[in-house]
Amino acid sequence: MGKRRAGRELLRSLSKKQKKHLREFGEEHPFYDKVFACCFMGCYCCCCLPLCFPFQSEDSDKSSKESDSETEVEQVSGYHKLLATLKTLPESESEEDESESEEAEESEAEMDGEGSQETGEAEEGEEDKNDVAEEEEGTTDTAEQMLSQEQADGTDTSCNPRHGVIEEFTDVKHESEFSLETNFMEEESGDCNADRRESNPFKQHMDQELEEKEIEKMSTLPKTSSQSQWPRLGQLVFSSTLEKHKTLKADREVDVKQLHLHKPLESTWPKVNKQFLSAVGKPTDSSFTPLQRELFCVMNSYRDLFYPERNALTNGEEIRHAYCLHALNHVLKANAQVLSNNARRRDRKPGTDTDEHRDQGLTRPKVLMIVPFRECALRIVHIFISLLEVNDKKKIDVSNKKRFKGEFGSDPEEKPPNLKRPEDYEAVFAGNIDDHFRIGVAILQRSMRLYAPFYSSDIIIASPLGIRTVIGAEGEKKRDFDFLSSIEILIIDQADIYLMQNWEHVLHLMKHINLLPLDSHGVDFSRVRMLNLNNWSKYYRQTLLFSALQDPQINSVFNKHCFNYVGQVAVRNVPLTGSISHVVVQLPHVFRRLEADSVTSVIDGRFQFFIDKVLPEYRDAIMSHTLVYVPSYFDYVRLRNYFKKEDLNFTHICEYTKKAAVCRARRFFLKGEKQFLLFTERFHFYKRYTIKGIRNLIFYELPTYSHFYSEICNMLKATDNGVDATWTCTVLYSKYDAQKLAAVVGIDRTAQMLQSKKNVHLFVTGEN
C-alpha cells in the first residue's frame, strides 16, 4: 500500500500537459531539464534524429558511454516510471539510480552553489532524488487510477497508447453551422460589393488566368531579380519569372480604407494594433508601425516574402499581428465570395450557366500557419478573436474555447522557480512550449469554430511535427495530405527554431503541399477554380517565411519551393558589425580556413582538417579544459567516435544526455579530470547552461545563431582562477560559411577573409 500511495502522489505532482506529452512520446519535452531520450514508438519527434542515421550503429551506441568507462546506471526520471505498465525495473536497479541521482545533485550543488542560475538548475533536479521503482501490480493500479481521475476531471484520454490508435478531438457538432455550401451572406456581416472592386488585391490575384506557356516558362526559365532600398526593411531583392511584374514601391502612408480590408477589420485593426503604435512615437499613419506598413504592403500584393530579421524580443509580436491580419482578411474575403455566390445560385433561373461561380479549391483549407509551440497558436487565435470582435457588445461565438485554453494555455507552476536565462531565451520559450499539435479553425461571419475537422477548416495552425504525423511517410497505411491541396497562403513563422527541432519535417511538408488530392472529399466541381483543376495551385500560393537569421537551408526552401507567379521578395541586409563585438573577455580569436570543392565535400574536409591540423595542437596536457562546440549532431557523433577510438581523455554533452550524465561531465571538466568536452549546439539552445572551467575554445563550425558565439566566449569569465593569459579561441570556417561568418565578424572582415585562398589566421578581440 505504501508503494501505491507513493505512486499516486507522484502522479498528482504531474500536470495534465506533462502526462499528455508522456503518453504521446514516452518522454519529457526537450525544454525541461530531465531527459532528451529518443522515442521508440515510430513517431517523428523533433528531438529524434532525421529517420535514418548512418552513424547510429551498435558501435556508436557503445561509444556514447562515458570515456572513463563508468558503469553507473543512469537515473530513471519520474516520467519514465509512468511507463512501468510496459516495463518494470528491478528493485536493485532503482536503488542504484537513486544513489546516482543523489550523487549528481551533490556534485551540481558543489559546482553551481555560487550563482543564482546554477542554483535554479539544482532545484530542477531535486525531484530526481525520490525516484523509486514500483512493482508491476502496484504500478498498474496507479495507472488505472490516473486514467479514471483524468476522465473524472474531463481530460481527453483518447490519445493514450493503452487505448490503441491515437485519436484527437475534433468538433463535429457544428458542421452544418459552419458549412460554406449551406449558408448565405448576411448583409450586415460584410461588404458584399467589396469583392467586385477591380483594385481588390484578393480578386486580382485569384482571378488572374495564366496560360500554359506562362506555366511552362515559370517551370523552366530562371528568375530575373532586381533590388530596391526601403526605409524600414532595408535592402529588398525582387525576383520573378514573368517580366510583366515590376518592382513594388513602398507606401509611406497607408489609409486603412485603401487596403480593401474586409468590413469588420477596418474598425478592429487600429484598436488591436494600438499597443505597438504607442512605442513608435509619432507614426506617419494611425494604424501600422513602419515595419508593419512595409511588410503588409508586400503581403497585400500577394508576393512571397522572406524576412530573416524576426526577433522574439523586439518585433516578433508586431510581425505576428501583421500576418494574422492578412490571413484573416484573405479568409473572410474568400468565404464572403462563396456565400454571396450561394445566394446567386439559389436565385438563378433553371438552366442558367453556373460556370461563373468558380470560387473554391478542391478542399476548403486556405491558410496553413506553421509555428513552433502551442503558445504561438494560442496567441494567433487570440488575435483572430480580437480582430473579429467589433466592440464589447458584439462578441463573436467561439466554439470549444474553454477546451482550447486548457490544452494550449500554460501553467505558471510548470516552470521551475529561480531559473534565470537570457532574455531571448525567456521570450522564445514563454508559455506552453509543447511542439506536437495541430488544430483546425473555421470562420464564418460572426462565429469561430476551434478544433474543426481539417476538411471543414479555413485555417490550420500546426507545428512541423504535428503536421508531419498526419502526412505520414511513404508506405504507411494511415496517412493524409489531401487537405493541403488548395492552400493559398502558407505562413512559416520562426523558421530558425525548426533547425533546432527537425528541419526534415519542413521539407516533408513542402513536398506534399498543393498536390492533387487522392479523393474528391465531396467537392462540387462546378464551383472549383480552373487553377485548382489544372493542378496550378502552387503557382498561386503565397508563402510568408519569417526567421531570426539567414541560413542556407531556409534560403533553399524559399528559392526552390516557392513558385508564386507574382514573384518573390527577400530582405537581404548584411550585418555591418558581428556578434564578436559583444565578447567582453580579452580573448584572441583565431579563424582558420579550410578548403573544400563543394558543399557536400566540406563535411569530410572539416573533419579531416580538424584531426590533422587542429587537434594535434591541443593533445598536450597543458592545453586542458578545451571545449569543442559542435553545431551538427552528425558531426558530434563522428567526433565522439573518433575520440573514443583514439582513447582521448574527454567527456561529452548533447541534447540526448541525461541530467546525471550532464552533471558528471560538467564536474569532470571543471576539475580538469577530462581534457576535452564535446558540446552540441542544440543542448545550448534548449538549456543555456554556463559551462565553467573553459580555457580553450574550438568552434568546429560557426554557430547557427550568431549571438551564441559571444555567449560561449563569455563563459570564460566564469572561471575563478583568472588564468586569462592561456585562453584561446579557434574557429573553423570555409567559403560556404559566408553568411554565418558575416554575422560573427561583420561584412567587411568577411570579404577580406574570403578573398584569401590560404588559411587565414585573424587575431581580433571583442573590443575591436
UniProtKB/TrEMBL annotation:
Keyword Nucleus: yes
Single GO term (MF): U3 snoRNA binding
Domain UTP25 NTP hydrolase-like: 302-569
InterPro entries, per database record: P-loop_NTPase, UTP25, UTP25_C, UTP25_NTPase-like
Domain of life: Eukaryota
Comp. bias regions, Basic and acidic residues: 59-68, 349-360
Subcellular location: Nucleus, Nucleolus
Chain spans, region Disordered: 59-143, 339-360
Main localisation: nucleus
Bias kind Acidic residues: ranges: 92-139
Pfam families noted in UniProt: Utp25_C, UTP25_NTPase-like
GO cellular component: small-subunit processome
GO biological process, one term: maturation of SSU-rRNA from tricistronic rRNA transcript (SSU-rRNA, 5.8S rRNA, LSU-rRNA)
Its job: Component of the ribosomal small subunit processome for the biogenesis of ribosomes, functions in pre-ribosomal RNA (pre-rRNA) processing. Essential for embryonic development in part through the regulation of p53 pathway. Controls the expansion growth of digestive organs and liver. Also involved in the sympathetic neuronal development. Mediates, with CAPN3, the proteasome-independent degradation of p53/TP53.
Family under the similarity heading: Belongs to the UTP25 family.
Identification of the protein by name: U3 small nucleolar RNA-associated protein 25 homolog
